[in-house]
Design goal:
The chain has about 250 residues and is α/β, with parallel strands linked by helices. The chain contains 9 helices and 8 strands. Strand 1, helix 3 and strand 2 form a beta-alpha-beta unit. Helix 1 packs antiparallel against helix 8 and helix 5 crosses helix 7. The two termini are about 25 Å apart. The structure holds S-adenosylmethionine (SAM).
């Protein structure tokens, strides 16, 4: 997948460096649903520039960090953590051998994977018996899907041709791969900022929406996702879902 390279990857990494605290609720989601333990081997799918890898590697015995884009993975490499193994592969092309991992974790990446059937076969092969599969992503019909299809697809430097989820397809993929019927939960995530303007800049960079302006990105977010003022913070609604299954 040649999508997260060049300008797209550069702006993604710049964004997460500029706003290191905006996505704190994502970490809480990871802790709650993945619930990693210090004796476990975890496989991360579509890890990007390591937003989770950085923290997760401190919580587990070994972390296998995968992403098809070597440019995205550069920052994970720079962490130089002894318990991280890097794999430059997509979910659908993973070659890890049998029953290697206690759990698989992915956030905001699987909508980029067009062969989810193959990906789930890989997951089922690599998970130990009783191992967990936890995928947080964008669901079809959600306000977040609308944001991506209306704004990101138009203005992102690479376009945004993706495949969002439905509950039914998640269930079918688990069924076909021999995994337990997934439990699916709504995630009412809020990304937090000090000013409203920061939200425009954040969206402009995280999605590399170079064909428009940060001001237009903010306007779109207010119309589609909604922004709430809470205390001294501006909260951007980021409604995802998470599916939790087991081998
Ligand atoms: C929006 S980023 C999310 C990165 C990270 N999980 C985070 O939360 O910051 C999506 C990532 O999915 C990766 N990706 C693209 N195609 C993929 C595939 N087939 N399988 C797994 N990941 C893929 C991209 O390279 C990119 O790094």
């Amino acid at each position: 997948m040649a999508e997260f390279i060049g300008e797209r990857s550069r702006l993604y990494k710049e964004c997460l460096r500029e706003f290191p605290n905006a996505r704190e609720e994502d970490i809480e989601v990871m802790k709650k649903y993945l619930a990693p333990k210090d004796n476990e081997v975890i496989l991360e799918i579509g890890a990007g520039s390591g937003f989770f890898s950085k923290r997760l590697s401190k919580m587990v015995k070994r972390l296998i960090v995968s992403d098809p884009s070597d440019e995205q993975l550069e920052e994970v490499k720079e962490l130089k953590r002894k318990n991280i193994e890097l794999i430059e592969e997509g979910a659908d092309t993973l070659t890890l051998r049998k029953e290697k991992v206690d759990a698989i974790w992915s956030f905001g990446a699987m909508h980029h994977c067009f062969n989810k059937t193959k990906a789930f076969q890989n997951f089922a092969r690599m998970l130990k018996k009783g191992g967990r599969l936890i995928l947080a992503d964008v669901w079809h019909g959600s306000k977040l899907a609308k944001h991506f299809d209306d704004k990101v697809a138009k203005f992102c430097v690479t376009g945004h041709e993706v495949a969002f989820w439905t509950d039914e397809f998640a269930e079918s993929l688990c069924f076909l791969a021999g995994l337990e019927k997934p439990k699916i939960y709504d995630l009412n995530i809020k990304w937090k900022f000090d000013t409203k303007e920061e939200i425009g800049t954040f969206l402009y960079k995280i999605h590399a929406m170079t064909k428009t302006t940060p001001q237009e990105c903010l306007k779109g977010a207010e119309e589609i996702l909604g922004i709430e003022n809470k205390g001294d913070k501006f909260c951007l609604n980021w409604p995802m879902k998470v599916m939790v299954s087991k081998k």
